[in-house]
Amino acid sequence: MAYSDSVKPRKLSPLPGVFWPILLAGSCLLSYVPTINGLVSGPWQTEQEGHGPLILVASLWLVWQSREQLRAVHLSPAPALGWTCLLLGLSLMFLARTQDVLPAEAFSIIPVIIGCVLLSAGWSALRILAFPIGFLLFAVPVPDWIIDAATVPLKVFISDSVTRILYAAGFPIAQNGVMIMIGSYQLLVKDACSGMNSIFALSAIGVFYAYAFRWKEKIRSLLLLASIIPITILANFIRVLTLVLIAYYGGPDLLEGMIHDLTGIGLFLVAVILLFALDSFLGVCVSLIGRWRRKQTELAGHS
Fold first, then answer.
1. Under 8 Å CB-to-CB from 111, ≥6 apart: which residues?
2. Residue from 97, 193, 214, 220 carrying the catalytic annotation
3. Annotated catalytic residue: which of 97, 214, 220, 239?
């Protein structure tokens, strides 16, 4: 009897193939525990970045929706580029953590995830997960210098627009920068009224909606995304206009506390409603264009 006959063939355990990706992903996630703690106790508690946890949930949901595609992927790891992305991401995390730059530290998780996917599964899996990974950008806090650079021009623009509209309507109103004088009252347009807080959250909603429900209609998706900033500015204009009128008729004391917060919530609801109203309008336009094209085709066929 040959030696080969005396040894029974054994099936290879799938554990080694699963163990490496689990160990790699687990190690990377463990290294980002301080980053998550910093986000939870810092930016994610603010009105501007409070949507961060929802971005994580949405990304995980998108990954779950892609599970059938991922199961069909032929594993073909790309170690060279995978290690490059992973090491670059970890190096950025180390430098950002030592310098206490939380936005850069949070951003570094994206190349780390890309590196892990390339090392574990390859390009096919990365193409499927490209949007869920890229969507995590909305969970990264925006640096203060970017916010400051955009906030002041927006405040001045909104203040000027409100003043012009009310002045044309006959109200005793004047403006000095971001200070609005109406009647005997002076109102300061604060940073929260610039629209920056809403722009980030509404952008995340718009991008998610366009990808999840309108991705096959490229032009419609692009128009929705391009409308986010104008819609947010319009909603903030309505909010500031409402606050100025409340102060004029009821006094500035009414602007403190609940009413100010309610107008902030109302602002965001108005922006979301305007976004979906635009989407419905675009849907009607697409339907009308489709009917017109069909009629033209029928007429051309009869002629």
1. 85, 86, 88, 89, 92
2. 193
3. 239
